[in-house]
């Protein structure tokens, strides 16, 4: 079994956490308050409370303790909140990379001309395209 296959099988078996739950956890950790987090996420307070309760039960760690003004992360909760932030940041990076790949110009550009390329300013055109498309290969023939 390759390393990536092993990781995928581990994910399928042992992940009690989904991305929505991580977003809820991070929002409550940042806000320190279920009401503000619910407003920010456009979810109901009971839905957020239920997700936090399930998360704590699934991972077996107390994440918050109540204070007079809301919720405060426990030591374990603070450690996990930092990890959750890293996961969400990696997901955003993944999304940005995927979007960049979709819009990236790549492939092979073949241009043939019977006129001097300098006369038609083909050099400037190609320079622009080569800057824009890092993976663009060009082939220019005159004759």
- Report the sheet with the most strands, covering strand number, pairing sense and barrel closure: 2 strands, antiparallel
Order of helices and strands: HHHHEEHEHE
The DSSP helix count reads 6
Helix proportion of residues, in percent? Answer: 55-70%
Task: List low-confidence stretches.
Answer: none
Describe the structure in your own words:
- The chain has helices at 3-14, 19-31, 34-41, 45-59, 75-103, 122-132; strands spanning 64-67, 70-73, 106-113, 135-142.
- Strand 1 and strand 2 (70-73) form a beta hairpin.
- The chain is α+β, with helices and mostly antiparallel strands and 143 residues long.
- Strands 1-2 form a two-stranded antiparallel ribbon.
- It has six helices and four strands; from the N terminus they run H-H-H-H-E-E-H-E-H-E.
- The mean pLDDT is 84.
- Helices cover 62% and strands 17% of the residues.
- Helix 2 (19-31) packs across helix 3 and helix 2 (19-31) packs across helix 5.
């Amino acid at each position: 079994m390759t390393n990536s296959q092993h990781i995928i099988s581990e994910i399928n078996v042992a992940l009690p956490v989904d991305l929505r739950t991580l977003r809820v956890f991070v929002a409550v950790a940042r806000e320190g308050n279920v009401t503000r987090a619910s407003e920010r996420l456009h979810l109901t307070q009971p839905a957020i409370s239920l997700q936090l309760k399930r998360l704590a039960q699934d991972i077996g760690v107390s994440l918050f303790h109540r204070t007079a003004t809301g919720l405060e992360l426990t030591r374990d909760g603070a450690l996990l909140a930092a990890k959750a932030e890293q996961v969400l940041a990696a997901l955003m990076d993944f999304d940005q990379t995927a979007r960049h790949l979709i819009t990236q110009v790549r492939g092979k550009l073949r241009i043939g001309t019977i006129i001097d390329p300098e006369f038609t300013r083909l050099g400037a055109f190609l320079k622009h395209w080569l800057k824009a498309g890092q993976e663009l290969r060009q082939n220019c023939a005159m004759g």
